[in-house]
Specification:
The complex is a heterodimer of chains A (237) and B (420). Chain A has 237 residues and is α/β, with parallel strands linked by helices. Chain A contains 12 helices and 7 strands. Chain A has a 5-stranded parallel beta sheet, sandwiched between helices. A two-stranded antiparallel sheet of chain A has the order 4-5. In chain A, strand 6, helix 5 and strand 7 form a beta-alpha-beta unit. Chain B has 420 residues and is of the alpha+beta class. Helices cover 64% and strands 11% of the residues of chain B. Chain B has 10 helices and 6 strands; from the N terminus they run αααααααααβαβββββ. In chain B, strand 2 and strand 3 form a beta hairpin. Chains A and B meet through helix 7, helix 8 and helix 9 of A and helix 1, strand 2, strand 3 and strand 6 of B.
Chain lengths: 237, 420
């Protein structure tokens, strides 16, 4: 993963992660995954988001299990995102509706629990620098998004998402599309950035968009899409 | 990679839980895709309707003729006679009023007959008989046998109109009542001379013959037409049924040929000892044959999502052979004809039979596109059986199917994509 931007963002110190899950065995498993990456450090764990964040207010990224004590924590997710917390949701609920609802609520990323260590580490690192990371399961949900008001993706963006979802290998997608791996990632990330206009505005979405513009991933004139959506969300007089 | 392989088993369980949550009906071997119409009732009803329509059409001419005869006779012969002999009638006002009543009845029944509306036959018959008796009484003895006593000749035709489409016995009964009223009038007016009685008999014959002939004739023609139409409809229904049965038989034979093609060769070689069960290539062919058989069986199941059902049938066989498969389904496929489904599923079935290690099967569906993809590790082996058709494009009625089968040293990627 790109070490530069992360180091630049957190001033050389490792990214602080808080894990919220109600299954101790999962917490331990995720902690072990993240421990293999020196740029990450787990600051606090627990089954209550508020308690965990009281224990580690400086956490850069919150890994949140979507289902806590039998309840879907979508409301809590929206609250944290509005407050500017970078939340990576991870869940065994991989139906497309749930994944898209999680993006709408302001999560920086969605990770399916079966997607494994590599995607988990990559997602958390990207989230810490307000950069998108789209694991294959999320790509599938985006490419199959049936909602009439879904973001308009270009053919290339859609194809890259589809092939990434199918193959789980950016190298294979690059070979298939006859483009570089870097361009594949750009297409996928651009599609993800377009999703920042879906649902309610949140500080995390604004941060993702701002960083995408800074990185040149999306052109400044394309911000209009986001602004018009925000205006639409405002109550009409 | 090894960590992922360890996780693969867990993944498959989750995938299986997702993929088999739907109800899977017991497979029915050799059930026809097309089912012949069982009960004959809808066809018979349709034939009956067709026959009735033909009968109605051929009956229409006879109705018009009867209405024209009745009304023309009533107005061209009856009315002038009444008007010319007004002074001679015992109660001309009553006779005239009765004429108007019958004319009104004629127009009403005529209109309803032409529109095909039902008639209140027996109330109308009662009314006509009452008019009959009234006119006989009101005509008086001098005009009893003249044209001014118009009921003699005309009323029979109105009986025909009132009883149209019913049995001829009803008409005969009405005419008998009419004759009886006339006889009572003849006797009541004291006209009992042999010549009068002879005239009575002649009049009775005259009033009977034509209406009865017309009525019975039209009934016979309508019955014949109905019978002919029913015969023709039954013939058509039988031909359609024969065609359908023939089509079902042809489809069954095609499927049987497919099934035989799938398993026959490898089974024969195994039986002859030409193929070695320990040979991995023979094993792969056997797996492919089993998967194809399983899919052909699944094809005839009546399930809400046939494409997914057939894909699951293909994965079942591979899973039973110990291959961990992740099946991810996004969206609901639109209804696709069996040929398109075969184009989508066949390449994946073939690739699955050769897969080793793990497999990821994905289905992404939208209203105008279905993409099925199978990714397995590229083991770099030469094709043992090869996917049917490999890559390429196939057109079908509602769209086109693009197929790709690629190896890049890392993965083997088989994709079939239908676009409307």
């Amino acid at each position: 993963m790109d070490a530069g931007p992360v180091a630049e963002m957190s001033g050389g110190r490792p990214v602080g992660v808080a894990i919220v899950d109600d299954h101790p065995v999962v917490v331990e498993g995720v902690r072990a995954w993240l421990a293999s990456e020196p740029r990450l450090t787990v600051l606090a764990t627990g089954d209550d988001p508020d308690e965990v964040l009281r224990a580690a207010p400086e956490a850069d990224v919150v890994l949140l299990d979507l289902r806590l004590h039998g309840q879907m924590a979508l409301g809590k997710l929206a609250e944290l995102s509005t407050a500017g917390r970078r939340v990576v949701v991870y869940s065994e609920h991989t139906d497309p509706e749930t994944m898209l609802a999680v993006l709408d609520a302001g999560a920086v990323a969605f990770l399916a629990k079966h997607e494994g260590r590599e995607h988990c580490v990559a997602t958390v690192l990207a989230a810490a620098s307000d950069r998108p990371y789209v694991p294959p399961a999320l790509a599938g949900a985006m490419v199959g998004d049936p909602r009439p008001d879904r973001p308009v993706l270009s053919d290339k963006e859609r194809e890259a998402l589809l092939l990434w979802f199918q193959s789980m290998s950016k190298a294979s997608v690059a070979r298939r599309m006859r483009i570089s791996e870097h361009t594949v990632k750009q297409y996928v990330d651009r599609a993800r950035i377009k999703y920042t206009r879906a649902g309610r505005p949140a500080a995390t979405k604004a941060a993702l968009l701002a960083r995408a513009i800074e990185d040149g991933l999306i052109r400044p004139e394309e911000i209009g899409i986001y602004r018009s959506q925000a205006r639409y969300d405002r109550p009409t007089p | 990679m090894s960590a992922e392989l360890d996780a693969a088993a867990v993944r498959v369980d989750a995938a299986r839980a997702r993929s088999t949550s739907g109800v899977r009906p017991a497979p029915v071997t050799g059930a026809p895709v097309w089912t012949a119409p069982g009960p004959r009732t809808p066809e018979a009803a349709a034939a009956g309707r067709a026959a009735a329509a033909v009968a109605r059409a051929s009956d229409r001419g006879a109705r018009i003729a009867a209405i024209v005869i009745a009304l023309a006779w009533h107005s061209v012969i009856g009315l002038p006679a009444v008007l010319a002999n007004r002074s001679e009638l015992a109660a001309p006002g009553v006779v005239l009023a009765a004429w108007v009543v019958v004319a009104a009845v004629g127009v009403l029944t005529g209109a309803r007959l032409l529109r095909g509306d039902p008639l209140p036959a027996w109330p109308l018959a009662g009314l006509l008989l009452a008019v009959d008796a009234t006119v006989f009484a009101a005509a008086g003895e001098r005009q009893l046998f003249t044209a001014a006593n118009w009921v003699w000749s005309t009323l029979g035709w109105f009986f025909v109109l009132a009883l149209w489409g019913r049995r001829v016995t009803g008409l005969l009964a009405l005419l008998a009542a009419h004759s009886l009223i006339a006889l009572v009038a003849v006797v009541g007016h004291g006209q009992t001379a042999p010549a009068d009685l002879a005239r009575f008999a002649m009049y009775v014959y005259g009033t009977y013959s034509l209406p009865v002939a017309a009525f019975a004739g039209s009934a016979v023609i309508a019955a014949l037409a109905r019978e002919r139409a029913a015969t023709a409809a039954a013939t058509h229904a039988m031909a359609a049924e024969r065609d359908a049965a023939e089509r079902a038989r042809r489809e069954r034979r095609e499927r049987l040929a497919l099934v035989s093609g799938a398993a026959e060769a490898v089974l024969a070689e195994l039986a002859d000892g030409r193929a070695d069960p320990a040979d991995p290539r023979v094993q792969r062919r056997a797996v492919l044959a089993a998967a194809q058989l399983r899919r052909l069986i699944a094809e005839s199941d009546d399930v809400p999502d046939p494409l997914l059902h057939e894909l699951r049938a293909a994965t079942d066989v591979a899973e039973r052979n110990g291959l961990p498969i992740e099946l991810v389904i996004i969206g609901k496929p639109p209804p696709l004809p069996v040929r398109t489904r075969r184009l989508l599923v066949d390449p994946l079935t073939a690739a699955l039979a050769e897969a080793g290690g793990w497999a990821r099967l994905t289905v992404v569906s939208g209203p105008d596109e279905v993409v099925v993809s199978l990714v397995t590790p590229d083991r770099g082996e030469p094709d043992a059986t090869g996917p049917p058709g490999g890559g390429g494009v196939a057109e079908d009625d509602g769209g086109r199917v693009d197929r790709l089968d690629e190896r890049d040293g890392e993965i083997r990627w088989t994709q079939a994509r239908w676009r409307r």
